[in-house]
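The freezer alarm interrupted the setup, so I double-checked each line after restarting. Inputs confirmed:
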Amino acid sequence: MKGNQYMLLPGPTYIPERVQRAMSRPMINHRGAAFRDMQEEILAGIKQVYRTEQNLLIYPSSGTGGLEAAVANFVAPGDKVLAVSIGVFGDRLAEIAETFGAQVQSIKVPWGQAVDPEEVGARLAEDRNHDIKAVLITHNETSTGVFNDLKGVRRAMGNHPALTIVDSVSGLAAADLRMDEWGLDAVVSGSQKAFSIPPGLSFLAFSERALAKHRTNPQPNFYWSVDFGMEYQAKGQTPFTPPISLYFGLQEALRMMLNEGLENVLARHDGYRRLVRNAVQAIGLNPLADAVSASPAVTSVWMPEGIAANELRQYLLNNFNVVVAGGQQSLDNKIIRIGHLGSVRELDLLAVIAALEIGLRQMGYPVELGRAVAAAQEQIFQGTGDRRQG
Amino acid sequence: MKGNQYMLLPGPTYIPERVQRAMSRPMINHRGAAFRDMQEEILAGIKQVYRTEQNLLIYPSSGTGGLEAAVANFVAPGDKVLAVSIGVFGDRLAEIAETFGAQVQSIKVPWGQAVDPEEVGARLAEDRNHDIKAVLITHNETSTGVFNDLKGVRRAMGNHPALTIVDSVSGLAAADLRMDEWGLDAVVSGSQKAFSIPPGLSFLAFSERALAKHRTNPQPNFYWSVDFGMEYQAKGQTPFTPPISLYFGLQEALRMMLNEGLENVLARHDGYRRLVRNAVQAIGLNPLADAVSASPAVTSVWMPEGIAANELRQYLLNNFNVVVAGGQQSLDNKIIRIGHLGSVRELDLLAVIAALEIGLRQMGYPVELGRAVAAAQEQIFQGTGDRRQG
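Predicted 3D structure, all chains:
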């Protein structure tokens, strides 16, 4: 029998039982003391994950809502911005900025690669008059399984005064991010990724520099207004009714995450990355990303010549109740994407790799059954090993 | 012992066990067939509640997000709009329109009253050049416990071409609303009110006339764009990751609601309204609203001279774990608001009324204990009776 689904998407992710139970608690008054205390704990917890002591707001929205909030508050109509895109979500952030009147200059990197920090540095160095007001960049690009070296990019920006606005919706808590130490100005994340709770909340952390920009920004704002958010946060509330059940889940997920330790959470995701890469490489498949910029949240794998990715995905779903993601836009039907973020068990990854072997063989690709699984087993057997290994 | 909380807010509301269980189901792929089927069922169900066959989108947001979506899509910068406000939420809708560049003319009705439809009609009749592009109006005003006669207002508008944009966040499924029959153009609602699921989803239904307005509206839109929403809905998806657990809950809540029958749901809310009014009047308290426009979702009650509303609320919380709402702005500390929308048991209302009697007596107001309860019991005993009775 197929039983429960193996869902290995790059979000939404598996929801741990403890989080599920927390979300089943009865509603509380969102203008009362219990909510205030819960919000305080949650904000402190998320700030630890962001490694920031600056401002943080939670929006009732998808991750994209958090991105719109960052743009609407911190980019003024007419501002020149430099948008670094390495895939679908980088393009989306640029499109939001364009929608709200920014003059967008782009750095477009071929899909499957990260941006070279020096390229960003060079573009800003040319901008002697400081016309560029913000750099928009994706931390972890879900569509390709590549992450950008944010620390390197920020360092390459040097003393250029542009704000650094980061989409870390699928990156935070899977890949290292140090908002204050690296000097990032606005960082957006979401609940349905490494936080292991259902979709419906986005997070926006922002610096005093970003806030100063907001104060002079004529862009109209209501739902996304950081002023409303901060005004109500000071009272222990939110301006609009918060998704209370998701807050319950978030509180529990943060407790689990901080109890495990952030370093351990990051190491665990790095282990997933290596496990999946080693496994697919053992049967001759090629990951889309090279080892140095491969995402700890999702691994994209090229299908061999003659194998239709979407047909394979359908086979996995029909025969084993396994869900993995496909490619988007130009990568459609050419890659599969195996998500491994949040609360993933290594044994689930082994099981899905086993199913993948069977599926490939059924579709005519020569696989020695068990070979990819063995490569993954070997890694688990040897313990964490050298984290830098491809 | 105090045990579980009696939470009688005008939203969020009690979540039925069946809905809780549905929300605990594991995540599914929001780009897959199971989500598509669920969304189809949900959209059909909500449309039945709206009594519309027109367009409907679900946003991952608070109710206020749905209001912003209505304004951002259907009101152009510079448009003259007529905002009818009978309380805090009417003011909020006007403020959103102002934020996004509309020229707002207001009809402000004293708090506790509904608008006279003829007043709206008269204002539009004066507007011979049809400069007014939209009428913004609240269906049920949560801050006062008053509902507007939408049908009468729409009729009084006659053939004036202004769009009718309605905030029915706390009204829908508690008070009658017939979008198509009454000719409303955009109607916003939310999950945490009569739908009995946690906050986090808003609904926006809109007419072809509203859509035509959107087509020529230069207001920039991304997260709220009805184009994106409709484009993805045609594929059985949503443009941004949907709050899947809330969708599970909504599906279950709609099944319960449609199984009960919409007429019965409305009659039940009308019964709550009469029950609470009869009870408080039996001990000499005055509801803020008169019988004809008293909300079926929430009842506001004036405190007697010398009784501080917030002190009474604190007493009820401390001694009986009962949560009722207070007054907002000028009504703060002067009224309490007893919410009765969604899945409320009559016996819970009796219990809270009993606690209210005790609290009032403790605070020095002369109450013959049991009198308010008896009035409510009498109503239950006699069955539904005449629904028009105050």
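Quick read of the result. Chain A is about 40% helix and 15% strand.
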